[in-house]
Design a protein that fits this description.
Layout lengths: L1 E6 L5 E7 L4 E10 L9 E7 L8 E7 L5 E7 L3 E10 L7 E7 L5
Antiparallel strand pairs: 1-2, 2-3, 3-6, 4-5, 4-7, 5-6, 7-8
Length: 108
Amino acid sequence: MTHLAAALGHDIVLSGVLDPTLPGLNTVRVAPWLPLGATQRGQIALAATMRGMTRPPSGAVLQRGHGGEFTGTIRLPMFGDYRVVVTPHTPAARATGTFPLALPFPQR
């Protein structure tokens, strides 16, 4: 499991986890911290790219679930370092931010 965090525009902060942090299908769960009065409706889009690779980004759309947490799955093709673009789509505003994500090679 890997912990995630991103500070986006409009005072939106995301924190969550990626599990199992292996190549293939991974579950993403994030909880947004929003400015006072903002709602947690909408979706959160993710696009993961690996620097120097020509393959298209791996994408995911996280849907709001119980307790204000957003959940979805993303397919990450290989071990390595990714750059993830996060775009929450809310009724009030769209904000974008990025965070690094590493799928490290297993240690023996």
